[in-house]
Write a structure and sequence with these properties.
Elements (H helix, E strand, L loop, with lengths): L1 H17 L1 H30 L14 H26 L7 H8 L6 H33 L5 H29 L2 H14 L29 H24 L7
Helix pairs in contact: 1-5, 2-3, 2-5, 3-5, 3-6, 3-7, 5-6, 6-7, 6-8
Length: 253
Amino acid sequence: MTLLLISAQVEMRRLSRSGLLIGVLVVFGFFGLAGPALALSMPEILKAAAGTEQLRIEAAEATPADGIALFNQSAMQLGLILAVVMAITSLGWDARPGSSIFYRTRVGNLASLSVPRLALCCLAVISSYFVALLLAVGLTTVFIGELPPSLVGAVGLSSALYLVMAMSIGFLIMALVRRTAAAIAATTVLMLVLPLLNSIRVFGPWVPTTLLTASGADFVDLALPMLSAIAVSAVCVVVAGFAANRQSLRRDA
């Protein structure tokens, strides 16, 4: 238990001193402000962009669902990448031969070091996301209209699970390749390609990327993607711990 707490404390100091914690909070907070504002001004933006005799666009007035949808679409792009970077860099010590040797010769099970760091990163990202979500909900309610609590709950839970899944995937890739830049690049490409599975009818009901469209889906339709995201996250963490323990010391410095 002491080792778990120490590992979490070290990771908290890293997040604070590196600016990652402030960065993820600022990114999500910005989209929490910008999402409802963009939804409210979208008709005027489209009217100004297409204000010619050859082209005319008529846009409907913004709805409360539009405010939360635009926030989530934006937050789950740049915010998702930053969350993945945070999870991958939590294993950054294993990418450096000196610190890798130091930890591996003093700890029998690397999961006791790595899992608390990942858990703390997930907690920081989810907390930042929910702060931004509440901000978006508040602004949407004031300027556009009241949001159904069921919609807010579905969007929040779906996005939180998807963020944890993406971070777990990045965590696994980093544990395997032990190269920070390569892990970030590979995870980013994978998260961009993953939505293509929605086009395959067999995988459609189970694909976790369905969680990204939670604002336009029923909660019942999100049950299977939620279970998939939980299962993928658990498998990634377990396999990452097993792979890290089986790897030898790095001597390529």
